[in-house]
Write a structure and sequence with these properties.
The chain has helices spanning 4-7, 10-15, 19-26, 32-44, 46-55, 60-75, 90-104, 106-113, 125-134, 142-168, 172-178, 191-198, 202-225, 233-245. With 248 residues, it is mainly alpha-helical. The chain has one domain (4-245). It is globular, with a radius of gyration of 20 Å.
């Protein structure tokens, strides 16, 4: 007799071990793995938090202090039990936690942590400020702006993972030439010119583009799965974040 776990799809078996689901399942028990998972998520998606604080009128220095204090509180083990499975998505939990922190506790946290606490995450604040300065003025709601930065950070993370894979396969030049094909319809891609640049046949380029886009989609789904609480939410989250990137 085959057990239900053996007949489950590979995607569902993988999903239960993803980062956010580890945090949600930790509860009040041993949270060592949950702490590591939460830190990994915070390292990936810290910029939307920094940008959100800056948009609320705080100076770069104050925003750095507040963000660092926020992460310090968030990553303490006892804070993991506050993760509410009803929130579903990590970005929803993160934004809600940030709002609570800024409203009720930022003054106290700033006084306690400024200059005296160890940096919890090694982050490039200067690069973050340069990036923030380049962002256009956004007149949407703070939540929408946060979600757009979130979507950008997520897509950047997926591209970084994809580039690393091609580098390991010694196909970095192919990736750099073909990554432009990740957007737009397949039929609109300049296959002939891409083939010339790569010294490949047009047919081989079409196959390479198909594989690139397929792998990109798989990595995108896997990364989003890390930030939601069930497999059923993955496609819904992809659709929402893509609409957000389009400004809808």
């Amino acid at each position: 007799m085959v057990s239900s776990s053996q007949t489950a799809s590979p995607q569902r078996r993988l999903f239960v071990t993803t980062q956010w689901s580890i945090v949600l399942k930790a509860g009040h028990g041993d949270t060592t793995h949950a702490s590591e998972a939460l830190e990994r998520l915070c390292r990936t998606y810290w910029y939307p938090i920094y940008a959100c604080v800056r948009r609320r009128g705080h100076s770069p220095e104050d925003a750095q202090d507040l963000a660092q204090s926020f992460f310090l509180r968030l990553l303490e083990q006892q804070s993991l039990a506050n993760a509410n499975p009803e929130l579903g998505r990590f970005r929803s939990f993160l934004l809600g936690a940030l709002n609570h922190f800024l409203i009720d506790e930022w003054k106290k946290a700033r006084t306690q942590r400024r200059g005296g606490g160890r940096p919890l995450l090694s982050l490039d604040w200067a690069a973050a400020e340069r990036r923030f300065d380049l962002e256009p003025v956004d007149h949407t709601t703070p939540g929408k702006a946060f979600d757009k930065n979130w979507a950008t950070a997520l897509l950047e993370e997926v591209l970084k993972q994809l580039e690393a894979e091609y580098q390991r396969e010694e196909k970095l030049e192919m990736f750099r030439v073909l990554k432009q094909t990740l957007t737009g319809a397949r039929e609109s891609q300049p296959y002939a010119s891409l083939a010339k640049r790569l010294s490949m046949t047009e047919g081989a380029v079409r196959v390479a583009v198909h594989r690139l886009r397929k792998r990109y989609r798989a990595l995108l789904e896997a990364e989003i799965a890390n930030t939601v609480s069930s497999q059923d939410e993955v496609k819904e989250e992809i659709a929402y974040l893509l609409r957000t990137m389009r400004g809808e």
